[in-house]
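TA notes. Do not distribute before section.
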Amino acid sequence: MGTVLSLSPTSKKGAIMDSGTAAALHHKGDKSIKRPSVFVSTLTWKKLVPNSAKKKSAKKVSPNPPPPPSEPEVSQLNHENNKKSHVPKAPIPVPVPTVPATSQVIQSQTNGDVKITSVQKQPSSVSLLSPRRVVIQASTGELLRCLGTFMCRRCCRLKELTSGEVILWFRNIDRTLLMQGWQDQGFITPANLVFVYLLCQDTVTEDVESSYELQGVFLTCLYLAYSYMGNEISYPLKPFMIDANMDVFWEKSLSIINRMSDKMLLLNSDPHFFTEVFQELKDQRPDGEANLDR
């Protein structure tokens, strides 16, 4: 008679074992055939599948992310960042060296007479920070007398030349230009007298043999001084010429310009050089005249 097997469907594991037993009973003669590897691989597969599913579910992003910051919170954060980036740094003090002015020229007018004052600062032997002040002052009339005296001393061959004669040449030119409308105000001022003295000091020599020759050289210097320092654009030649030959006048003018152009520019740009020339003119004062320098 045959053998009846009873299978229970409640357990898959038992079903697998019963099927294996049935196969073993069916082949009674072959006891060496075993199939445990199928059983092990099946259990291993079932164990790995749930573990990998758990790892994937752990990497999923949370469906409820935190809400973004509100506008007041954003403004507060920006304000704090700006304060951190704009923290003021203490400035580094840098000493600035200062150089005291070497000289100062002041021009004033008192009782119709223009007076010029030059304040020259010289280094003291005690301290370099407190220079000694040397004040040089002179009026228009005083500088005119100094200029006339210089001309008389330079032209020692002209025994009859006086300081008043040189001053008269100068005043006649200035008066003529005013009367003919070539200028609106007088040219004779202390600063212009210093400029005329600079030209005469270089141009007038001891070789002058006559008053007529000296007047021609002096008027040529005056023409250049008016043209360079005057308030008008141009001046006529006739009041400044005593020689009918115009070529001679222009040759003298160009000769003076070629020699004195640098000093003429320097006199107006360098107060120290102006003070030196001013002092030299002041030193030409007539004998016996009081010295007002202090």
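Switch to the second chain here.
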Amino acid sequence: MSGDGSQGDTTQSNGVKNHRSALPAAMFSRNNASMWSVLKKCIGMELSKITMPVIFNEPLSFLQRLTEYMEHTYLIQKANASQDSIHRMKSVAAFAVSAVASQWERTGKPFNPLLGETYELLREDLGFRWISEQVSHHPPVSAFHAEGIKNDFMFHGSIYPKLKFWGKSVEAEPRGIITLELPNHNEAYTWTNPTCCVHNIIMGQLWIEQYGNVEIINHKTGERCCLTFKSCGMFGKELHKVEGYILDKSKKKVCALYGKWTECLYSVDPATFDAHRKSDIKRSDRKGSTQSNNADEEPDEMPPPETETVQVIPGSELIWRISPRPDNSGKYYAFTSFALQLNELDAEMERVLPQTDCRLRPDIRALESGHIDVASAEKNRLEEKQRMARKNRSQTNEEWKIRFEMWFHQGSSPHTKAPDWLYNGSYWNRNYSQLPDIY
């Protein structure tokens, strides 16, 4: 395949798909674009309702961005292969941490999906297939369902993040439960993602942090993994760090986990971890007492510090390490190798895709190809078409789910009883005759 990322033949002579390693065009510089002119009237507002210039986008829909959960699918397969529930929880925890790893340095905004937009990804090489759909526009809700090719797992949920602008940063608060089911073990795990924050969006160096508590529950055994994604802190010493414990059903610590969501995750005996952390705190206190504390500096105003890699505690086990990004990542929106492949479109794929698949969105396609004026015009056209469609539906009092076949329906999670969107199981039948014209 050519190095320019063209959408030509992607199959090798042995029949194995050869995924692309570049995009058709490099990203545009945002140096001369003023986000402040757009956001200065939006402080405290929900950003999904704000129209953003296409220069601030990356050439992926949010539905495609969600699919990056699956980059480290091998961790699910590793959990499946273990006969020990604590070992399975370690792998599931690593999968949950790895799911946000691709967000590091990804400062472009994915395109908001249109109501009824879908995305499929069939990766036999990685052992899964995925379908997602934008099931609601106000509020925006994205539902997804992935399953193992060997029927060895199901991974599903519905996501409706709340994006808010706070003057110097944009915060994405996670909403929605994520569920992983392992039928071979009759287990279901649920959790929510941490909060993501992009700093210095007005001026200075953009940087991202994840923070908050994530609790992973094994609903069969009662075991839990309680992780804390650390906020940066005043001097950046906690940046990217994640740590926590696996607890048995009696809430006894049986394992400690630590690492960085941008890099790796280790496990170690909890007593060893606690002793290491106490000595680390004492060293930090001694060091801090000799430094002046400039409390006038807020984390938003500081560029991300050059932090040391994770200090490995003796006796630790490596559970997960991130794959290196391609050398051309900075040229292509800081995409991982997996992300570079998400908008691939070849003739064979185009013949079977439904007309709602976001690979067919003209604005995303144009931005990926470097035609920013076309992308902007198409983005405006699609948003206006969506507004008119919604207006027509309200006038005729027709419900979306009545007019068009949907791949998900509203219900409740069988594990948490919380409201959820559940997959109806029919997408891969390839009956797409009643789908809407959204592009």
